[in-house]
Design brief:
This protein has a domain of 81 residues: OB fold (Dihydrolipoamide Acetyltransferase, E2P) (Beta Barrel), CATH 2.40.50.1000. It contains one helix and five strands. It is globular. 16% of the residues are buried. The model has no long low-confidence stretch (mean pLDDT 81).
Length: 152
């Protein structure tokens, strides 16, 4: 445990002065969870968070995403697709005010944990499938024009 947060110290070391583990950068404020969307910048990562927003007019929920630029210390080996936790810190640049503190789940772990499902037999009919010769033929647009679907 380091930083006053419940995160393990990385085994690798680095000489980054903006590393919260091996440098002098202090973390403060809240922590966020997200997925690494880009690591194209030097010592930086774009962390993407997806959340739902209520739309009262339509009584529905809509997905939105936010992209947070964060400092990526060299001691954390990050790849696109890794689930990470970032913490708020002092402003490091014009856009960066967060730092990656731990990887929650890596893409390498996800790839090794994938279970291959057995292929289904083609003779089995799954509920909801339309078989040949079925009288239930509908157009992809649905019922056209029977109940108020047209323009006036």
């Amino acid at each position: 445990m380091a930083l006053g947060l419940d995160v393990p110290t990385p085994e690798a070391t680095c000489d980054d002065s903006n590393c919260p583990f091996h440098g002098t950068l202090s973390v403060r404020g809240g922590t966020l969870d997200g997925v690494v969307a880009s690591t194209d910048m030097h010592r930086s990562a774009i962390v993407e968070r997806e959340y739902d927003v209520n739309v009262p007019k339509y009584d529905r929920r809509m997905k939105r995403r936010s992209r947070v630029p964060a400092h990526a210390p060299e001691c954390l080996d990050l790849e696109v697709g890794d689930a990470v936790r970032i913490a708020e810190t002092r402003p490091l640049s014009k856009t960066k005010a967060h730092v990656v503190i731990t990887t929650v789940e890596t893409t390498r772990q996800l790839a090794s944990e994938q279970v291959t499902e057995p292929a289904t037999d083609s003779s089995e009919v799954v509920a909801g499938d339309v078989t040949e010769g079925s009288s239930d033929e509908r157009s992809p647009e649905g019922d056209s024009g029977t109940e108020g679907g047209g323009s006036a």
